[in-house]
Design brief:
Layout: H1 12-64, E1 67-73, E2 77-82, H2 113-116, E3 142-149, E4 152-159, E5 169-172, E6 175-184, E7 202-203, H3 204-209, H4 226-229, E8 234-241, E9 251-257, H5 265-268
Amino acid sequence: MRPERARRGVTLTELMIAMALLGLIAVSFAGFLRSMLRAGIQAQTQVQGTESVRQALARVELELSHADQVTIASATLVEFVADIDHSPVWDPGGDTDGDGIPNLRDPDTDCDAAAILTPATRWQAGYNLTDDDEDGDGKVDLKERLYFAGGALWQDLSVDEEPWGRRVRKLLADVSTCTFTYLGSKANQLGMNCDGNGDGIVSAAEIDACAPPGGPGDGDGRLDTAGEFSYVTTIRMSLGVDVNHDGKSDYSLETDVYPPLLPLKPLQQ
């Protein structure tokens, strides 16, 4: 019988080569896992940012749709008057003036239309085109602010001219960008003479530059007078969020809101 051959072992060089190959494979696989994890986190952040911005803009659109008069217009804050039926204390089933007509169906809830309007225009009372005090207490029923501060988008309400800050609500956190832009309309009676560059768009700068008799502008570079505010028909809002706090917007969106009563009230005054 032939003697059994001695079994050959693994040399140190072979072992080192195998370990190096395994190390390369492990490093490559770890890099792949990191990239996949990073992509997954980015996708999740994008989805979260998209949903939060869309919900916030939907809320802003709802609030601005009730505006009938802008009182402050800046890049980070818009203040406006809204109808009493948007007030948190309004009772649609109540009868403020005791005339037997529920507030919900009463166009003149404090029964003062005869004192402020002519018979031909009396139907306008109660729709906030002329009467901002529909509960008869001598104060503006409802004013609202939407503003950007401290990395968040906020809403504030003032009922019957109460101090600001009592009804504040955060609409969106982690806000990276928030800008309000104000536009007029060349098709509107108040803006037809203010399209200075003829592009069909009446910008805030053009409203401000449109001096009497053609317009209300005072040329100071900003919208800051009641006359200038009355020419605003569109409020544009750009909103972005930084969910992962990396200093970059994860998602941004822009919307234009056309409050239906905004261009009408100045024509009734």
